[in-house]
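Hey, I'm writing a tutorial for new members on how sequence and structure tokens pair up, and I'd like a real worked example in the thread rather than a made-up one. If someone can provide the structure for the chain below, I'll link this post from the tutorial.
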Amino acid sequence: MREALTPADARILALESDVVHGHALKLLVLEPGEALDLEAVRGSVAARLAAFPRGRQVVIDDGDGPAWVDVDDVDLAHHVRRHAAQDPVELRAVVGRLMSEPLDRSRPLWTVDLVGPLTDGREAVAVRLHHALADGLTAVRFLESVIFEPHDAPAHEVGVRDPAARPTRWSEWERMPMTLARELGHPGSRSPFDRPITARRALAFVDVPLSEARSVGASRPQHATVNDVLLAVIAGALRRRLLHHGHTPRMNAQVPVSLHEKGEDAAASGNRDSFVDVGLHLDEPDDLRRLDLLSAQMRVRKHAHDARSLDELFHALAAAGPVGTRVRSLADDPREFGLAISNVPGPRVPVAIAGRRVGHVYTSSEPGPRHALRVAAISNDRWLGVGFCVDPDAVPDVELLADAAHDAWEALRSGLH
């Protein structure tokens, strides 16, 4: 059966180039235990792949536009592999290489790589998924359906919005002038990440205790969400690193917002997200005050449904040909946003792979042309795992960014005491 890609998925596929490969990574770090058996993992994935039908499809373009088609057989020896690594430095090097390699378009657009075991007994599972196959929420459903051992807790609903609560298109367009003023009316300084990129990737990770992040948010005069705390951690890290280099520019971050609706098919609904742009307040020296400023911006944008209004606008622009493309390019300009910071909810309960508990979960998405840094976060039952992904030629020493994020988190946590 031939099923055309949605316009959003087709646009993501078309963004591929020699330096942008279009995939994201979920890194699952297992607690110490007996090494995973490669053949057993292949067998488990093969037995469960039917629960995620896109995982058994490839993209073709037969002249009528890109479309999904089923394949008769999935070569598990290609899709599930093992790599050696003995310590966290080697682990990061392996996942950096994986992020720099394109997925094979002649095969289903995913891979699962076992990395390790490390000398401390831990092991990692690196899952790559093309963005045309799955956005952040749908990728978590892939993990639940295919990778994690089955468990009794319900998976996150891919749809997080009630379709009955969807505003009318007229009300969206009524709000558009104010939405554009908030989202695209305050360009920043020249971004320090506005640099050419190659296909090389380097990654670093940091953890934030999830329960403490909630407590920090709840302690503020106006309640801040975990996502607000994440934005404050990243803004604090950027301020620390950029001050080290002598300046703190006025910079915006693009924050993806899911537009999935309840009841959608997790595996087939495609990419359904929009974004808001928020100022990072890098000139503010106080970390808690910066959190309050970021939280206030996000409350305004949520209340005004800016993300949905922008989605309506860009859908309309997609039909406007070259004019629409030029307008869209303005929204992607690095002065409109210096970097993207995404966050998706991962497993809410303890999960395991082949009897071994998943201790930490991280995610990483690619940087893009003129946006040489990308930050992505995912939660599990205990931690918010934050991944930094860069082109190391454009942004060296990504590990120092992760260290600065740890310092920014400690500054926020100190406000609890």
